[in-house]
Amino acid sequence: MKIGIIVLEDQPGEVDFIKVARGYRSLGFEGLSFRSPFQLSSALDLCQLRDIRQCAEEIGVFVSFDLGFLNPYNAVLSPELWAIGAGDYCKALEMQLTAARELGCTEVVGKIAGVRGPYNGRYAFDRFGTDVEWCGQLYASRNLLLKIRPVLADLGVRIDLENHEDLTSWELSELVEAIGTDYLGVSLDVANLPVLGENPYEGSKRLAPYTHLMHIKDFLLLPTSSGLLRQIRPA
Q1: Which of 108, 110, 95, 115 is nearest to 49 (CA)?
Q2: Partner of 216 at 20 to 30 A CA spacing, among 32, 103, 165, 188?
């Protein structure tokens, strides 16, 4: 097991990879996970990505990133993907997966849905959207994953879906089995399981056979007048 850190930047655009990688490596981290491949190369330039891979190997860190939404109903939230794929969302996903291969990254994070800020309450969650029922969103996501499965097979890259405050462990495991464990896995965030009322131990045990990446954090559940409040804490 290797311990990395998610790289969050205040400014949009490409990061100074060498500076960032050396800084976090000096703190003992063995890898860097980026919210988007566009933090590494705004045009997903393969030569630039190969140079980054070489730098990463010399510094001694692995590199991974978040692929974004695999839910067609949320694709509109990623206009940069429409642009890079010239309106073809599947092509944009293929370009990101090719970028992962050039970086030596065989496991990339993906998500189906999440929380829409700055809203609060039930309808802030895509799962409880009133426009498209959750079963419809899951069905569309499954079909999109099936469309890009040949690309995953050709590149030798696997998408690890995060239980991003939306998917239950049962839904996630069923989706992985439907797509195939060679192409789809889990990026487990234990602190997200209680959001859907799941026992974190039982949910983690259920997803363990499919888990290749993890978000490590601790949390508290505190009683309030309107229910349980989750507080995220350092592990």
Answers
A1: 95
A2: 103
